[in-house]
Amino acid sequence: MITQIDLRYFKCFELLKLPLSNLTLLSGSNASGKSSVLQALVLLHQTIREHEWSTRLMLNGDTLKLGTVLDVIDKVHGRHDLEIALTTNGHHYHWRFSGERTEMSLAIDQVEIDGVVNNTPEKFRYLLPHDQDFNHKEITLCLQTLTYITAERIGPREFYSLEDKQNTLVVGSAGEHAISLLHLGRDELVMEELRLSSSPPTRLRQVEARMQEFFPGCGLIVEQIPRMNAVTLGLRTSEDTDFHRPVHVGFGLTQVLPIVIAALSTAKGNLLLIENPEVHLHPAGQALMGEFLAHVAQAGIQVIIETHSDHVLNGIRRAVRAQRLIPEQVALHFFRPRSENEAQAITPRLDSSGHIDVWPEGFFDQFDKDLNHFAGWEN
């Protein structure tokens, strides 16, 4: 598990040292750096996944497109370099990258592993000196198998592309491979810690059962179109109705489905990054999403989410109160725009009752502010 990420001169951060846990929630105002934390991890993933022997950090690929070096260097304090460091349960990895501002990748200047500095090795593999990658399989596997789901997930489709199984290991950043992954792995067993006893242990049936928690009566049917590399998805919202095309059911179903498929298709030790899991969900569904992701984290999958939903937060708090997670397994971070006098990230803490010790200004407090306004109270 990655226990901390450090960023220097990356986007809006001069220096950020951010603890991570089994379940990490990133919150805060728009353009305060939440997505940047996820993007730093995705850049490492993208490079080692698409360019195994690369000597550069690739800013543009199938998963993420960030533009040029100018777009990712901190414009206030940075010049031509940035640094990313990861701490795991047993090791510390620190990369320094540099490049000209018009370039679309950054060269690896230095890799430090557990305090030992490696300056420009002759060959890299998985962004590590090639003669050392064998000793650090945990971090490379974690980054290789990372799943990243953006807030801009694809909506209902008439059909979905069916990909080769070797190329469809994750749902895709927009959920574009989710239905293909579900179809190809429909009979694979879901990890025991995530199974619902009410349904068979296979992926298709467990995904359907989880969807029923969000949408009672939900049913799924996935069928390959004859002589085409494509599948159709049928959805229903009641056992009394037939299956419908996705366009004829609520938008929320197709937004939640990639998250559920991703969670039930991963293994212990994998890393799941999700932007705005609450998209198109009503408040009760958002709270259920928080509880579901707490269950996923409890099963041994590291989860990092970016959210604007107090209901998702409260779902996580309920899971802690119910002792499905202990407080130390949850990290809450609240980001603020850069200021000379204030830290960019504040870390409120949960106790075993689900109570939060600090509520900084802007941390899921808009409901209370609105109540005060309607009651005619002074802010």
Order of H and E elements:
EEEHEHEEEEEEHEEHHEEHEHEHEEH
* β-strand number: 18
User: From the alpha-carbon coordinates, what is the Rg to the nearest angstrom?
Assistant: 21 Å
Percent of residues in beta strands: 15-25%
Low-confidence blocks of residues = none
Overall residue-averaged pLDDT value: 92
Q: Care to describe what's here?
A:
This protein is about 25% helix and about 25% strand. It is globular. The chain is of the alpha+beta class and about 375 residues long. It contains 9 helices and 18 strands. The protein has 2 domains: about 1-145 and about 265-375, Rossmann fold, CATH 3.40.50; about 160-255, no CATH class.
The gist of it:
With 379 residues, this protein is of the alpha+beta class. Helices cover 26% and strands 25% of the residues.
Write the layout of secondary structure elements.
Layout: E1 2-10, E2 13-19, E3 23-28, H1 34-50, E4 56-58, H2 69-72, E5 81-88, E6 92-98, E7 105-113, E8 116-119, E9 124-125, E10 128-129, H3 137-144, E11 147-149, E12 160-161, H4 178-184, H5 203-214, E13 219-224, E14 230-236, H6 251-265, E15 271-275, H7 283-298, E16 302-306, H8 310-321, E17 330-335, E18 345-346, H9 366-374
Parallel strand pairs: 3-16, 3-17, 11-15, 15-16
Antiparallel strand pairs: 1-2, 1-5, 4-7, 5-6, 6-7, 7-8, 9-10, 12-14, 13-14, 17-18
Summarize this structure as a short list of keywords or feature phrases:
single chain; 379 residues; Rossmann fold; seven-stranded antiparallel sheet; 18 strands
